[in-house]
Amino acid sequence: xxxxxxxxxxxxxxxxxxxxxxxxxxxxxxxxxxxxxxxxxxxxxxxxxxxxxxxxxxxxxxxxxxxxxxxxxxxxxxxxxxxxxxxxxxxxxxxxxxxxxxxxxxxxxxxxxxxxxxxxxxxxxxxxxxxxxxxxxxxxxxxxxxxxxxxxxxxxxxxxxxxxxxxxxxxxxxxxxxxxxxxxxxxxxxxxxxxxxxxxxxxxxxxxxxxxxxxxxxxxxxxxxxxxxxxxxxxxxxxxxxxxxxxxxxxxxxxxxxxxxxxxxxxxxxxxxxxxxxxxxxxxxxxxxxxxxxxxxxxxxxxxxxxxxxxxxxxxxxxxxxxxxxxxxxxxxxxxxxxxxxxxxxxxxxxxxxxxxxxxxxxxxxxxxxxxxxxxxxxxxxxxxxxxxxxxxxxxxxxxxxxxxxxxxxxxxxxxxxxxxxxxxxxxxxxxxxxxxxxxxxxxxxxxxxxxxxxxxxxxxxxxxxxxxxxxxxxxxxxxxxxxxxxxxxxxxxxxxxxxxxxxxxxxxxxxxxxxxxxxxxxxxxxxxxxxxxxxxxxxxxx
Amino acid sequence: xxxxxxxxxxxxxxxxxxxxxxxxxxxxxxxxxxxxxxxxxxxxxxxxxxxxxxxxxxxxxxxxxxxxxxxxxxxxxxxxxxxxxxxxxxxxxxxxxxxxxxxxxxxxxxxxxxxxxxxxxxxxxxxxxxxxxxxxxxxxxxxxxxxxxxxxxxxxxxxxxxxxxxxxxxxxxxxxxxxxxxxxxxxxxxxxxxxxxxxxxxxxxxxxxxxxxxxxxxxxxxxxxxxxxxxxxxxxxxxxxxxxxxxxxxxxxxxxxxxxxxxxxxxxxxxxxxxxxxxxxxxxxxxxxxxxxxxxxxxxxxxxxxxxxxxxxxxxxxxxxxxxxxxxxxxxxxxxxxxxxxxxxxxxxxxxxxxxxxxxxxxxxxxxxxxxxxxxxxxxxxxxxxxxxxxxxxxxxxxxxxxxxxxxxxxxxxxxxxxxxxxxxxxxxxxxxxxxxxxxxxxxxxxxxxxxxxxxxxxxxxxxxxxxxxxxxxxxxxxxxxxxxxxxxxxxxxxxxxxxxxxxxxxxxxxxxxxxxxxxxxxxxxxxxxxx
Lengths: 543, 532
Fold this sequence. Notes:
Chain B: One of its GO terms (biological process) is electron transport coupled proton transport. Chain B: It is found in: Endomembrane system; Membrane. The structure holds 2 protein chains of 2 kinds. Chain A is an all-alpha fold. Chain A is built from 25 helices and 2 strands. Chain A has helices at residues 2-20, 23-26, 30-35, 37-54, 64-83, 101-121, 125-128, 133-151, 155-173, 180-211, 229-246, 254-261, 264-286, 296-319, 323-347, 352-380, 395-398, 400-414, 421-434, 438-464, 469-476, 482-501, 504-508, 516-522, 525-536; strands at 90-92, 97-99. Chain A has a two-stranded antiparallel ribbon. In chain A, a hairpin with a 4-residue loop joins strand 1 (90-92) and strand 2 (97-99). The termini of chain A are far apart. Chain B is mostly helical. Chain B has a domain at 285-505. Chain B is 76% helix and 2% strand. Chain B contains 23 helices and 2 strands. Chain B has helices at 2-26, 35-57, 88-111, 116-135, 139-148, 150-160, 165-197, 206-215, 218-235, 244-251, 254-278, 280-307, 311-330, 335-366, 377-380, 382-396, 402-417, 419-444, 451-454, 461-479, 481-500, 505-512, 525-531, and strands spanning 66-72, 81-86. Chain B has a two-stranded antiparallel ribbon with strand order 1-2. In chain B, strand 1 (66-72) and strand 2 (81-86) form a beta hairpin. In chain B, helix 7 (165-197) runs antiparallel to helix 9, helix 13 packs antiparallel against helix 18 and helix 16 (382-396) runs antiparallel to helix 18 (419-444). The longest helix of chain B has 33 residues, at 165-197. Residues 515-524 of chain B have low confidence and may be disordered. Classes of the chains: A mainly alpha, B mainly alpha. Chains A and B meet through helix 19, helix 20 and helix 23 of A and helix 5, helix 6 and helix 7 of B.
């Protein structure tokens, strides 16, 4: 009796729900599952790999079933994001996920980058330590988080992505429980990263307090001035936290330790993809224009951050002997170069050139640092981790291809044509000069010469010096590793290809971002009227 | 058919050495196997044959760019295209480099002993970059090749150089990069100035930038001129920026020093194409100071060369002196001076190349570059002495050698521009004779005191061949100057006119061709007939 009643009640509820389309409020459009498939696939992959690990008897050993699944998933995700062409930019989940050209290109880069990391780490002994099923799962989760970050059109979506990435990375950095350096890196990264997340959250709270929304496209309502301390402080805190994640000086102090302590494959992942995604988030926030009127304050902030970062990165890199620490400082300098694009975007949020230069530099930097750290992992194969520069002496004759690949990537960082980095810097300079940031451009040019010196010093060790007692030891165990050779070759070809033919993909984009308005076109007329009503009834808190 | 070849010939000249380099890297083999050297040699000879097509089909009586090719390179909105072309001045420089590369490549058969594949690949890459610099009409393309030419040199000196090679190569590279980044800033400024002046249409075609640059206010022109000229001045080198040169020459491998005759010409070419043509008013303003620096370079270089005991340092300072002549000719800003400079570029490359080959022959046999280690070589190697004397004659600029005509034209040009500086530069000719004759005396003549020098082995066939070709070239340039000068004249006349009128080079070019500026693609037999 009661069960019958229950059944009929359930049927009624379902009927009501079907009639009133209640899930429209909760569930996204069906198109979402297709367009956001790269993210969803990675999340499914993360869960699958974790489950596969349960059946494994030796948890410390690489779990190949998980690896196969992960590679397949990344490949599928990359293929999907390449195939899917977005006709009209679309916003889902209340602009929590924007699917537009920027998102799809980011999905492609992130999926390919993750695939690259997975492939490369299966080919070295240190990389194989990363192939435990739970670590693969975390890697997939963090790359899903990166995709969510790149696609986010409002703060909540961004923050979920950021935390998904960051928490997975804290664990990944600290997987070597017995290594002192690994633990140091993990704890530093965790404490400072958590603090940065808190700062970002505080900034968002203050922004919410002043305009009553955290949607990026609504940030133009912000009034950034001394009279409106909430907005001012909110924006400052938000950008400080983001600068931490991008390792812009003076928020860079974690980078050298974390880069040094983490597994080299993972460092490559962090240095390229995390930075890439944060740069995209910067672009999304800045291109919505924060507040009306001129943005001299913001421009000045990025000017100072950029100059400081370039100076610190170029000077401190000179004194470090550890290859990975040196590259960490190089990445600090590169974060400073990103600031050129941020500053020009801040001074003119509609500037297409600034967006093009930012996108092309982000992708080029991702390719170069992924390649550089992969080569370093190759050098570390069967050897001590965290190599010193002197230990590379004589590599040019012992491992000519690895040395050649590293040379290409270092020339890329230095911005010497025909490697990709040249066009990256060239377009940054073009957009910065166009926005009148002459001083910062000159700082970039001058300090590029300084940082060139430490890139050259690595090449000097590899090519010009004979093998010494220390380096001989290192080369003892190294054998030809055709897998790593292929991976490095792919990265070398990619960076030379971009360097010779230019970053076409970044320039051909039109950078239209999905907004709520586009959502209304997709949705029914009914929803549209509701939305407009809802927009009109937004309560504005006292500013 | 010929038209299609003419369209693609320059791209072929750029790409072919790179392909050959890849082939060499892919073929396995030990250092002593000859196959790699044969391939490299064949590639440079083929390259030389390809470049003869330019000479055969070049139309001499016009200043327009020929054999030009325009392809889209970067997306259209940036206005940066792949544009290559040659006119009178770079035609002869391209030919010089292909001839020279083929000659220099022969040296690798004996002088190169370790890591052969890498060296040959870098050498071919260098050849490609040099030709790229000479034929680029788009400034971004030019900049890419200009930077690219630094990389092979960096590794060639760093890996195959002498004892202090690392210091020398870092110094060379960082000097070069600082200069070229300054140039990059100036070029980016021009790029935007062009967009501002043309309603937001971007272009980095140098012919468009000529128009923009000439219209800029004088102050701006001045700064841009200084940035660009400094970049080239470091690489020429002009007097106070020459300190990298002796270090480089002392430490570099033999092949690089032979090539340096051509490599230094990249910068003097840049001075003509960029500093003079882009900023005519600034060039007039700065002509005198630069001429003064050049005269200091001539005299200082010659005097210091006299006091050196190391042959390679003598050559370094002699190059400083000779390039001073070239610079003074360029900045006398008249056709005669420019003609002389361009002619002297060829002569200096050839005579310095011949001398370097001769010194290298001694070094390979005796392992020394010190003057005191030699003496009386003429008694042991009479043919060596014969070639040495010819090369020395070429260097001293005796009549009937090419250098005589070059220096003569330069001196006439500089007298027209500034008699005082012209007469001071003439002193340089005398000093130049002093140090080279002194070196000749010390090496060839004098008593044969050292035991080792008595047992010195004779010259290889390829060395004799190289020296014969270069000696013939020295005399050919001395007698058949008219043919070459006719090729360069239209362009240089145009440059002189644009400087006199302080107008853009390309508008002068348009004036001489009934207002038709640059049918830059489709240079073909039609065009040829149109000119005739």
